[in-house]
């Protein structure tokens, strides 16, 4: 039965593939190989399947190559736009900082001028008070002298009249009368000089009052100028503070807690600025001093923000071109294990692509971890930890201090991975958070 079926199949196939013989000739004899129709059909089918598989695989490779090239171009354009925006924001930040420095210099110069003018004003006021005191003393002396003169004249007339009544003649007191007349003349001359001195002091006092009015007007003009300088400084501080405050809040971090933590760790470097005061007597400070102290407090807060930004993971773990292959949250397991939680971001790029730390910190783990392959953990300030997984090579060791932008390893596909990529996680207080919040928050500022 099987032979009949075989013959029938060979007969049908033989219509398309007739029996062939392959002759092999040697020096001694000649042999041949018979190729049955079924053998030829199987060989042709295998060749066709191989050719079809080759064409299909080549097409898939070409499509993937074209898709990858388009993705790289798009990523490069996005990277260029991102870098251009970073450069523009950096230039604007530098310009704001330079304006603040220039405004601070103008403010210091204006304060020095105000201090000098106040010193001159106080000296002029003291001189005017001294002249008023001198005029009052001279007037008192003049009144007393006039009264003494009048008393002397009255006494002289009384004595003269009494002498004349007793002796019938005033000639016996001529010497005394001459002395009295000489005394009166001396007093009259002294009173004349005193009156002239009083008039001169009055003119000097009037000139001092005019100078005081002029200095007061200059002081008011300088105060208006100081108000304008203070307003610009306050505006510059506010404009510079708002994006930084928004960046930390967008990343889920409390700005006040960050500043308190930075103050504790950096009390000797980058700490509070010394409050400004023009008073040297320890008395209450004025309005300008309070405004200056408020501006200095704002600059101190900006300095705290700068330190916190260096310590928090606001950097990118890759500097080369890449594409996001998986986001944070629930996703389909790439190995077909259903829905699974994905606690980080996946960045795909070439084998050996450098991986960098996103902030200053200390390496707490560097080695093989089940599922994560070659794995590195870095502890940062404020209870933040970042992790980097599936590396092909680790370039740091436990306990090593790393800086933002410091290379910690190379991209690979170690551990539970379907291809070359970096799995990047951010933990705040031991809880995994979306790293994209830090990346987007930083892109709005830097």
Element layout with pairings:
Elements: H1 2-14, E1 20-25, E2 30-35, H2 37-167, H3 174-250, H4 255-265, H5 287-311, E3 323-326, E4 329-332, E5 339-342, E6 345-348, E7 354-356, E8 361-369, E9 373-379, E10 384-394, E11 401-402, E12 407-411, E13 422-428, E14 431-433, H6 435-443
Antiparallel strand pairs: 1-2, 3-6, 4-5, 6-13, 7-12, 8-9, 8-11, 9-10, 10-12, 10-13, 13-14
Helix pairs in contact: 2-3, 3-5, 3-6, 4-5
Briefly, what is this?
The protein is built from 6 helices and 14 strands.
Comma- or semicolon-separated keywords:
rod-shaped, two-stranded antiparallel ribbon, 446 residues, alpha+beta, 6 helices, 10-stranded antiparallel β-sheet, Glucose Permease (Domain IIA)
Oligomer: single chain
Give the strand tally: 14
First-to-last CA distance? 84 Å
SSE arrangement, N to C: HEEHHHHEEEEEEEEEEEEH
Mean pLDDT, to the nearest integer, reads 77
Strand content: 15-25%
Tally of structural domains? 3
Helix content: 55-70%
Shape: rod-shaped
Largest sheet: 10 strands, antiparallel
Q: Count of helices?
A: 6
In the predicted model, the low-confidence regions spanning at least 5 consecutive residues are: 276-281
Rounded to the nearest angstrom, the radius of gyration is 51 Å
Could you say which structural class the secondary elements and strand pairing correspond to?
Answer: alpha+beta
């Amino acid at each position: 039965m099987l032979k009949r079926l075989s013959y029938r199949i060979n007969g049908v196939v033989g219509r398309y593939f007739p029996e062939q013989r392959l002759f092999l000739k040697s020096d001694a004899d000649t042999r041949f190989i018979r190729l049955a129709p079924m053998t030829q059909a199987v060989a042709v089918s295998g060749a066709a399947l191989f050719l079809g598989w080759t064409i299909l695989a080549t097409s898939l490779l070409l499509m993937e190559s074209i898709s990858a090239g388009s993705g790289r171009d798009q990523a490069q354009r996005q990277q260029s736009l991102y870098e251009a925006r970073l450069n523009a924001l950096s230039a604007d930040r530098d310009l704001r900082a330079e304006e603040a420095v220039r405004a601070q210099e103008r403010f210091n110069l204006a304060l020095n001028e105000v201090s000098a003018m106040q010193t001159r004003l106080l000296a002029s006021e003291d001189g005017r008070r001294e002249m008023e005191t001198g005029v009052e003393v001279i007037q008192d002396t003049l009144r007393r002298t006039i009264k003494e003169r009048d008393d002397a004249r009255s006494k002289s007339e009384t004595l003269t009249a009494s002498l004349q009544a007793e002796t019938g003649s005033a000639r016996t007191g001529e010497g005394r009368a001459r002395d009295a007349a000489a005394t009166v003349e001396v007093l009259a001359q002294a009173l004349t000089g005193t009156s002239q001195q009083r008039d001169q002091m009055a003119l000097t006092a009037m000139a001092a009052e005019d100078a005081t009015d002029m200095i007061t007007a200059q002081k008011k003009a300088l105060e208006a100028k100081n108000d304008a300088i203070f307003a610009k400084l306050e505006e510059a501080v506010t404009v510079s503070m708002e994006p930084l405050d928004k960046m930390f809040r967008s990343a889920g971090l409390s700005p006040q807690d960050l500043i308190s933590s930075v103050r504790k760790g950096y009390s000797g470097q980058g700490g509070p600025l010394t409050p400004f005061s023009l008073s040297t007597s320890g008395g209450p400070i004025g309005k300008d001093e309070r405004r200056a102290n408020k501006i200095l407090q704002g600059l101190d807060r900006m300095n705290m923000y700068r330190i916190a930004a260096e310590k928090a993971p606001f950097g990118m773990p890759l500097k080369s071109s890449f594409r996001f292959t998986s986001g944070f949250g629930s996703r389909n397991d790439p190995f077909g294990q259903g829905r699974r939680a994905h606690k980080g971001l996946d960045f795909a790029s070439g084998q050996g692509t450098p991986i960098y730390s996103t902030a200053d910190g200390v390496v707490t783990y560097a080695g093989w971890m089940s599922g994560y392959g070659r794995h590195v953990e870095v502890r940062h300030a404020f209870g933040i930890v970042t992790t980097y997984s599936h590396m092909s090579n680790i370039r740091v060791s436990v306990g090593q201090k790393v800086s933002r932008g410091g290379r910690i390893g190379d991209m690979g596909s170690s551990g539970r991975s379907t291809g070359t990529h970096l799995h990047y996680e951010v933990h705040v207080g031991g809880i995994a958070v979306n790293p994209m919040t830090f990346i987007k928050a930083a892109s709005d500022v830097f």
